[in-house]
Amino acid sequence: MSIPHIPDISARQLAAVLAVAEYRSFIAAASALRTSQPALTRTIKRIEDVLGVKLFERSTRHVNLTHAGLEFVAVAQRITNDLRITATSMRELADQERGQVIVTCIMSVANSKLPKIVAGYKDLYPGIEVHVRDGIHGAVNEDVRSGVADFGINYLKDTSGSITAERLGSEEFELVAPEDHPLARDHAGVVPFAALAGHRLVSMPPDSQTRRIVDAAAVASGVHLRHAVIVAQIPTLMSFVRAGAGVGVVPSTSTRSDLTRGLEVRSISDPAIALDTGIVTLRDRELTPAASGLLAAIREHWSD
Q1: β 128-135/200-203 pair status
Q2: Strand 151-155 to strand 99-106: parallel, antiparallel, or no bridges (unpaired)?
């Protein structure tokens, strides 16, 4: 691929042409540019040599633009305006005055901690557009690995390879049940895991990390679970539980929101179930100022 020839003309030289075109005087233009008349004359001569045309007709009293000069001044004005706009745009991006952040996260976080943090960040930086992609553990890691998202919030189990993990805390899993369900009625605070045997469960898909950890606990405890209804979203799971389709085992962040309205929440013991939760990023990927700013807000307010 051949690179086309580009005239070697600087922004400062373009400003010199525009000044002479505006003042129609080398003396006045030199004064406005805070340079000497000889220096300005040499600058214009260099530009004309590079272009191979005369831009100005000079006399003892007047400086006029040639036809080539008229065309070049229009181009110079457009270039300098574009540079000015671009420089302002870059400063706005660096100062988080505008931009875009794409966050991918597990559904329990998207429905609990993240909205309040994002709302606070938006109050400080209203020009930043935040996109949230909520999904299961595997989808979050794939969003980060493929570069679709700037960063993710995920369970840290099975995170390796090109993904870097930073722990934020631990996510316990709890039972949600209708108010009149025997598991809620017969257990005031804590439900033994073995008590789930025989009860219908509303569960996440088998490939979700929530389902995997629940199934692993069942195998380790020798408990047979009845996965009666399978759904893909935490809010949907809560709705089915509320309707009496079964009980659910969900991350504790999901139970600290309006999703559990009308439901009873109980801790689970023997065994207690928990997973580390944190930030996942693509190794060696440099975040934009906007993404770095939101990430800092998440670290600061995660425990609020």
Answers
A1: unpaired
A2: parallel
d(CA 3, CA 36): 36
Q: Could you check whether the bond before residue 182 is cis, i.e. omega within 30 degrees of 0?
A: no
Cβ-proximal residues to 169 (8 Å cutoff; 6+ apart), any chain:
276, 277, 278, 302, 303
Indicate the range of 78-87, 103-112, 198-207, 276-285 predicted with least confidence.
78-87
Kindly provide the residue ranges of all beta strands, DSSP E only, lying in the chain, ordered along the sequence: 56-58, 63-65, 99-106, 128-135, 151-155, 163-178, 190-192, 200-203, 226-230, 248-251, 263-269, 274-282
Contact 295, 279 (CB under 8 A): yes
Task: Give the integer Cα–Cα distance in Å for 269 and 220.
Answer: 13
pTM over 0.90, yes/no: no
User: Do the beta carbons of residue 278 and residue 153 sit within 8 Å?
Assistant: yes
- Ramachandran area for residue 284 (φ above 0: left; ψ -120 to 50: alpha; else beta): left
Eight-class DSSP state of 287: P
Tens of pLDDT, residues 234-290 = 899 999 999 999 999 999 988 887 888 899 999 999 999 999 999 999 988 888 888
Interatomic CA distance for residues 114 and 298, integer angstroms = 8
CB-CB contact of 50 with 76 (8 Å): no
Contact 202, 245 (CB under 8 A): yes
Q: Write out pLDDT tens, residues 103-152.
A: 999 988 998 889 999 999 999 888 889 999 998 888 999 999 988 999 99
- How far apart CA 210 and CA 66 sit, in angstroms, is 75
Dihedral, CA of residue 82, residue 83, residue 84 and residue 88, to nearest 10: 100
Residues facing residue 275 across a β-bridge: 171
Q: Rg of the Cα trace of the chain?
A: 32
As a whole number of angstroms, the distance between CA 118 and CA 295 comes to 10
CA 282-283-287 angle, to 5 degrees, is 65
